[in-house]
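User: Quick sanity check before I run a bigger batch. Here is a single chain. Can you write out its predicted 3D structure?
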Amino acid sequence: CSFPPLPGVSVIRRPQARDGGFTTLGSMLKERGYSTAFYYGGQGIFDHMKGFFIANGFDRFVEEDDFAQVTYKSSWGVCDEDVFLQADRDFEAQHALGKPFMAAILTVSLHSPWEFPAGKAPLVPKGTEPPPGFDPPELDNFLYADWAVGRFLETASRKPYFNNTVFVFVGDHGVHLRGRDLVPLPEYRVVSFILAPGFEPGRFSKPVSQLDLAPTVLGLLGGSWITPFFGRDILSPGAVQALPWALSIYKKRRYGVLDGGRFLVRSENGDTLCHIGEGLALSPGEPDPEGHQALKRGLGVLLSAEELLKSRRYKPE
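Assistant: Done. Predicted structure follows.
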C-alpha cells in the first residue's frame, strides 16, 4: 500500500481502510486491466486480511482451504512449496489467457514452532552453534524457506510467463531480536530483491523501506502513474540524489526516523534518543537542528497519513 504504519491499531484492522477505496498496488494495476490475487497459506480471517484485500483491489483471496494440492500443513497453514505450486499453476493459466496478472503471496514458514516438511531442504550441520536468541530448528526453517523460494523460481523459469514477469521478494518483518532498545533498528532490516527481465544485477545501498516497493514496481512496469503512495521509486534517475529516509513504528507507540546515516527516536514520553552512524549503541541526547527537522518530518508523515485514512482520501485524486 506504500502507506506508513500508524501508532495504535494497525491500518488493516481499521474500518476506514477495510470498507474499500484504500489504494493498494493491486487496485492500481486492476485499473490497467490486470487480474489480481492474494495467496496466503493460512486463514484469511487472520489480521482481517481477506476482508481488507478483497475490498481494496484484489479479485481473489486464496487461503488455506482453497489449495488444490496440499502435501504438508503446519500449525500456521499450508507449507510454502504448496503455496508456490498453486500460484505457479495459476500464473501459467493467466498467461495462456493473454491477460496481465498481479499476485501477492504471503507464506507461513519462519514462525514458531518451526514446522516444515522433512527431507526437502538441507539442514544446518550438526554441532552448529546458533546465534544468541535463535533455536536450531529456527535455522533449519530458514533453509526450508530459502529452498522453497529457489524451487519456485527454478520452476517458473521454465514457464512461458517468466520472461514477462517482475518478481519481488520482501520480508513482511525482520527477525525479532528480543532486544531492549526503544526501537531496535536491526530488527527492521528485511531481505528484499527484485528479479525482472532485462534488469541489470545491482545493489541499492542507501536506506529504503517497504513504502518504496510499490512505487518502484510501477516504475519498472513503465508508463505514467498517479498515486497517493508515500514511497518513492528508488530506481528512478533522481533516487540516488534524494535524501535517504525511512520511518519505523515500534510497539505501536514510538517512532524512529532513519535520516541519512543517523537514526533518531521519539518515545511516547517525548524523549529523544540519537543513534549516530553504524553499529553504535542507542544513547539519550538532543539532536542538532537537522535532527529535530527529521523528527518533525516523521511526525508530519504520520499525521498526514492519519488524516488521509480518517477522511477516506487515500486514493489518486
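Residues 289-310 form the longest helix (22 residues).

User: Great, the batch can go ahead then.
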